[in-house]
Amino acid sequence: MTDAIRIRIVADQIEQLFQSLIKRDYAIFGPTVRDGAIIYDRIEDTSDLPRGVTDRQEAGKYSLASRPDQALFGYAIGPHSWKKYFHPARVKLFGASTDNGVFRILQEPTPPRQPTALLGVRACELAAIAIQDKVLLDGPYADEIYRDRRKEAFLIAMQCTESADTCFCSSMGTGPAVPVVAADITLTEIADNGNHWFLAEAGTPRGGEVLLELEHQPAGEADCLQVSTAVAAAGLQQKRRLDTTGLREALQDSFDHPHWDEVAKRCLDCANCTMVCPTCFCTDIEDVSDVSGDHAERWRRWDSCFTTSFSYIHGGSVRSSPKARYRQWITHKLSSWVDQFGTSGCVGCGRCITWCPAGIDITEEAQAIRGTVNHGNT
Amino acid sequence: MKKKPRIGVFKFASCDGCQLSLLDAEDQLLAIADAIEIAYFPEASRTMAKGPYDIALVEGSITTHHDAQRIQEIRRQSKTLVTIGACATSGGIQALRNWRDVDEFIRVVYASPKFISTLKLSTPIAEHVPVDFELRGCPINQFQLVELIAATLAGRRHNVPTYSVCIECKTRETVCVAVARGMACLGPVTQAGCGAVCPAFDRGCYGCYGPMDSANTASITKQFRILGQSDQQIARAFRGFNAWDWQFRKASEECEHK
Question: Chain A residue closest to B175 (CA)?
């Protein structure tokens, strides 16, 4: 990249972004209101966006509310993360059949896939995608399913200017500001006093090409300052934080901590936290055959360390108690993930807090362990 | 050619809905009829061949002395005994009478109580004979039944999950009705299998598939109270189609005795 492309777009013109992406044959996925939430789904134009709607999130609670302004992206994050597009919940790996007693794997052509554009990806979510990239693409055995979906995707980030009560990206160092090269385009929405506009920055050449097609004005220094101030304010707004200092060691040393029994009393073992987590990647393999026995399929589906079948080996589950399963999840997420992949597995999006039907808060649980562990670093 | 396995389908106290699931599996029905011999299935066929059977599918709960004896004979005649549905697995909705005086019901309901002969309790099949597998649901899911038959025929492990309904909601991207709508939803303590139908239609889970393998009924009870449910309402939530299942039973009685 030579000169950074940084422009100002009037909100009414943002429709042109859709046109520009559609012209390039992208299927656009972004925020829209459905079933009492702002979810991520296929969208066609600005009328699908959650104009003037915001989300209220707290432990075990989510609701929508109207905003005083006409903001199109005036919410924190949706219930389901973007991982569903790159790492599908269910996917067929292959089919097989027997023909006169001869077993063979069917060579089924993968149907052509329209390239996807994700609109409105938050900083924490970009960090989560970077983590899944590392987990699923790095190393000798890249996940082809993930790679095929991920490589084509056009990412349009949306910086936050407000945080939900459950957000703690600031303390995780993953947001609310988006590093400029993290996405093809990074947008920031400013919707005050009838002056509704976006700052748009290109992170890649193809992002720059799209931006220059849109009606725009050059972004001035005052515009950039207003945006960076608004984004910084979103970070300062956050009440929750996860103190990661010494956390890796504290969790490693807390196998027998009495607090695990306390959290196990509340934990429903329902696996919601892992389903909504944008970095959780575990899967199970299911082999099915039909009644005739002539046709079989192998499927991959999301699994969770909260199910007893997840750690089942001959004779039983390795982690047979809810306590062991909760400990496994949080210890992997915040401690052994660091050993395995070099970063924390948590990006501070707060989904596991909001969507836990029992309202269990990962920041509180980590602090309960960290604050009382008998360890030199804490 | 290998001898086809013989299947018998038997009914006890039930509504017949689970047996119908087998007949509802229309596109698989011919393949099923091809792969197995339906030796005994009065709901579907006049043929009522004697045992022994390779697989017995048993629907319904035990509510009479006669049925209590009949299930013993079916067990003796069957290599593998699979219960289908909430009645056979936990006693069914009719187990609600287990908390009341059944003689009083008989006096109130029937013109000639003397013709009625019934047990005090409606009980699951497993309280009477050893059961090889329990297929949950009210009614059962026909795809799970076909999967179970296919797996048994192939000699492979079936894919019948024991985790929560929540995983099915998340897989189909239903927004959680407990969190976003404040509904009392039994999904977090209920076994998957239905495909999470009710939350997709804006209802909390009714627990038709009974408790999942690590159901924390105490925690969900606490959450229901936070959502404003009275102890009576919570007790009633647990007393649905799987009321007599020991975990739901215990949870409902704890609310009642508070």
Answer: A35
Q: Is B149 on the interface with A (CB under 8 A)?
A: yes
Contact criterion met (CB < 8 Å) for A39 and B175: yes
Of B150, B161, B182, the CB nearest to A290: B150
Within chain B, which residue ranges are assigned CATH 3.40.50.700?
6-154
pLDDT at A155 over 90: yes
What's the pLDDT tens digit per position in A34-68?
Answer: 999 999 999 999 999 999 999 999 999 999 999 99
Nearest to A269 among B150, B151, B214 (CB): B214
Cα-only R_g, chain B = 19
- State both tokens at A117: 């554009």
CB contact under 8 A, B216 and A308: no
Please give the distance of CA A353 from its chain centroid, rounded to a whole number: 14
Whether the CB of B166 is below 8 Å from some CB of chain A: the reply is yes
Question: Number of C-alpha atoms within 13 angstroms, CB side, residue A199?
Answer: 22
Homologous superfamily, domain B6-154 = NADH:ubiquinone oxidoreductase-like, 20kDa subunit (3.40.50.700)
Judging contacts by C-beta atoms under 8 Å, the chain B residues touching residue A97 are none
**A window 193-222, beta carbon within 8 A of B:** none
What gap in Å lies between CA A55 and CA A38, rounded to an integer? 7
> Closest partner residue to B180 among A37, A89, A268, by Cβ?
A37
Condensed to tens digits (0 to 9), the pLDDT of residues A289-326 reads: 999 889 999 999 999 999 999 999 988 999 999 999 99
Q: How far is A63 from chain B (nearest CA, A)?
A: 6
Query: Which residues of chain B from 26 to 55 reach within 8 Å of chain A, CB to CB?
Result: 28, 31-32, 34-35
Neighbours of A213 (CB within 10 A): 14
Chain B residue at shortest CA distance from A356: B179
The one-digit pLDDT tens for each residue of chain B (258 residues) are: 568 999 999 999 999 999 999 888 888 888 888 899 999 999 988 889 998 999 999 999 999 999 999 999 999 999 999 999 999 999 999 999 999 999 999 999 999 999 999 999 999 999 999 999 999 999 999 999 999 999 998 889 999 999 999 999 999 999 999 999 999 999 999 999 999 999 999 999 999 999 999 999 999 999 999 999 999 999 999 999 999 999 999 999 999 876
> Taking the alpha carbons of B217, B220, B222, B225 in that order, is the dihedral positive or negative?
negative
Cis status of the peptide bond prior to B199, with omega within 30 of 0 = no
Calpha distance B9→B140 (Å, rounded): 14
